[in-house]
Specification:
By secondary structure, the protein is an all-alpha fold. The protein has helices spanning about 1-15, 15-35, 35-45, 55-75, 85-100, 105-130, 140-160, 165-180, 200-210, 215-220, 240-245, 245-255, 265-275, 280-290, 295-305, 310, 320-330, 340-355, 360-370, 375-380. The chain has 20 helices and no strands.
């Protein structure tokens, strides 16, 4: 503890303390808030297992490990004729590379290195210009400008250059929330974003399945991946997924592991019937898989098996009710008639709006704004 306090004192009261203080606070917030889940995943990759999420602890350690050597090198370089702020550029490059490790590619690595080299070259040129004007009277802005330019350029570089996208951040955050506790569905990460991936969709479905009937109540409240199918309900089988949220955790909830070469829908059906003809997590995965694959006739038969009482009482979960309403309107002799007044008016408004728009792309875009969270929009207009 005494050593850590001494280190912080050195960073704060070393030459040019404003720059040191700024970088200390900036890096601490960068590691502990903006890239906290990326850092946890990096630790997990190093350990070979899921690491505990301690954002402020990792943030303080990484900030000191990067900033203290940089400040020491700056102090040594100031005694020479070389540009003294090169260590800060190297520090920024290490920050970006470290937080990008889980998804870093060769192209992204080259782009990050070239941008750091460009910042270093410009900074060195400005510093040389400043050195040439030592013998002349200078304004205050000429003294502060090189340092402010460095701070601004490195801040933008660190903030914008990490390779992780918003979707990948949502994937890591969702997996962490599922591991730590049971998140309530409305507060899943990225709830206001239209960006989605197969991994993020599967993790959201898993999170919803932790709450009774939440999967059929909220599945289409979030975007689904393009050309989505029942296979998208399964967690991917790759090294990153095993560190984020192992697929075995889903298999345990469904009650069985998939057989070799078993189709996802067949796997969900087997799990659902193993748990009996009652509402269950496996039954919801099976029924939602049928809806994603648009097997609406088979869905109408199977929902009567697992939700018999709710079907008779006209009290199905929301998206099952929308699917049964759609089935009732599409078939001349439906097995079950399901026409709740609260949903039928909305469905008729949707069909009227869709029929009034003749260009397919215009129909898809305009109806999505109002009806994109309904199953009948997905059934008719979502890309297949």
């Amino acid at each position: 503890m005494q050593h850590a306090l001494r280190s912080v004192f050195f960073v704060t009261y070393a030459p040019h303390p404003p720059m040191s203080i700024y970088f200390f606070l900036f890096l601490l917030l960068f590691f502990s808030v903006a890239q906290a889940d990326s850092i946890t995943l990096v630790w997990s990759m190093c350990l070979g297992r899921a690491a505990q999420h301690h954002p402020w602890l990792w943030g303080i350690l990484l900030t000191l490990l990067l900033l203290l050597p940089a400040r020491w090198c700056v102090g040594r370089l100031r005694r020479t004729q070389h540009w003294p702020y090169t260590p800060y550029v190297l520090m920024a490059w290490l920050c970006v590379t470290l937080t990008s490790m889980p998804v870093l590619t060769v192209t992204q690595s080259l782009k990050q290195a070239l941008c750091a080299l460009l910042i270093g070259t410009i900074g060195h040129s400005v510093w040389r210009w400043k050195q040439k004007r030592r013998t002349t009277a200078r304004h205050a802005w000429e003294t502060l400008m090189p340092r402010m330019l460095l701070l601004l350029s490195l801040s933008v570089y660190i903030g914008l250059l990490p390779a992780t996208t918003d979707v990948e951040q949502y994937e890591m955050q969702t997996a962490r929330l599922v591991r730590e506790a049971h998140p309530t569905p409305p507060h899943l990460p990225g709830s206001q974003s239209l960006a989605v991936s197969q991994r993020l969709f599967a993790e959201r479905c898993y999170a919803l399945s932790l709450h009774p009937s939440s999967l059929p109540e909220a599945l289409w409240h979030w975007p689904v991946p393009p050309r989505c199918s029942s296979a998208h309900l399964l967690l991917p089988h790759d090294a990153r997924q095993h560190l984020l949220l192992p697929p075995d955790s889903l298999y345990q909830r469904l009650g069985a592991r998939p057989l070799p070469n078993e189709a996802p829908l067949a796997y969900f059906k087997r799990c659902a019937h193993l748990q009996g003809a009652t509402p269950s997590v496996a039954a919801d995965y099976y029924l939602c898989g049928l809806l994603l694959d648009r097997h609406i006739d088979l869905f109408a038969r199977e929902v009567a098996v697992f939700y018999k009482q709710a079907l008779q009482a006209q009290a199905l979960p929301h998206y099952y009710a929308e699917a049964m309403l759609l089935y009732t309107h599409l078939r001349t002799n439906p097995l079950h008639v399901y026409l709740p007044a609260s949903l039928e008016a909305n469905y008729l408004d949707f069909t009227a709006m869709a029929d009034s728009l003749h260009q397919p792309q215009v129909r898809q875009n305009l109806t999505r704004y109002t009806y994109g969270e309904t199953y009948y929009w997905y059934y008719h207009l979502a890309p297949r």
